[in-house]
Amino acid sequence: MASYLDFEKPLAELDSRIEELRETAEDSSLNIDAEIDRLQAKSERMLRDTYAKLTPWQKTLVARHPDRPHLKDYVAALIEDFMPLAGDRNFGEDQAIVGGLGRLGGRRVMVIGHEKGDDTASRLKHNFGMAKPEGYRKAVRLMQLADRFSLPVLTLVDTAGAFPGVQAEERGQAEAIARSTEECLALGVPMVAAIVGEGGSGGAIAIAAANRVLMLEHSVYAVISPEGCASILWRTGDKAADAAEAMRVTAQDLKQLGVIDRIVDEPVGGAHREPAEAIAALGRAIGEELDALASESRDALRAQRRAKYLSIG
Fold it and tell me: Average pLDDT over the chain, rounded to whole?
């Protein structure tokens, strides 16, 4: 059974009615197929109309949907011969950021991304995708490895932000994020980043300062969460929807502002409804961007990144 968001309640009620009719049809001699078809068509129209006019706050809720594809799903579907690489060679392993070698459509790539987990045990294991300094130092190590062997870097971003705990600050969280961002900008190989859910604060930009930045249609990308912004400006999280509107967190706004380069369409109703279709669409887009960058020299790739980020704002 689909998991519905608050703004999808009318759709949930209609789909529940359709399910009841289907069960009735199975248990009786009544022919109600026509009524089921009518309600199904109405449900599809309602879904399409609802997702065509989502507010920034509603898009934020969609970006956080627990059934949305996660890093492990993208890797399983898109990356052949994936070999995970662990540890920062300094403190330890941080499973909020997962990385490794593999092939995307025949291209050898280094894949790095946030993993949130999809059940209680895996969310705790991956710390809900909120990385500590060792996670970003691992990302730096893997980017340097990719640079040494001339491998393109692909990053998949999905985090509410870097872990804000005391132990992370004690181990140099800000410095680790800065170093990771610096390494993105210094790479002499093509780098493509994709925001696939939440792109939160420095925790996102640390692995997203790429030559090409893609966003799934209903993902969000911002310097702070709407709730965090509202708590600062209005001293209450209840104004999160207003904050999301003012912050311009959506892919459509960020494309207009020049922060991202490309929006990848999602299936009607969001990536969580048709994950295989969403994953395939992103895979095609990433492949096209990597092909476009493949012939660029190391100096040209660095210069392109420099020009891109200096021009923002």
Answer: 93
104 CB-contact burial (10 Å; exposed 0-12 / middle 13-18 / buried 19+) = buried
> How deeply is 144 buried, as exposed, middle or buried, from its count of CB atoms within 10 A (0-12, 13-18, 19+)?
middle
Q: Which secondary structure element, helix H or strand E, spans residue 289, and what is its range?
A: helix 275-293
Burial group, residue 122, by CB count within 10 angstroms (0-12, 13-18, 19+): middle
DSSP structural state of residue 113: E
Q: Answer whether 234's CB lies under 8 Å from 212's CB.
A: no
Q: Are 263 and 77 in contact (CB under 8 A)?
A: no
In this model, does residue 3 exceed pLDDT 90? Answer: no
- 189-233 per-position pLDDT tens digit: 999 999 999 999 899 999 999 999 999 999 999 999 999 999 999
**What one-letter code names the amino acid at 67?**
D
Burial class (CB in 10 A: 0-12, 13-18, 19+), 161: buried
> pTM of the full predicted structure?
0.91
User: Is residue 284 classed as helix, strand or coil in its secondary structure?
Assistant: helix
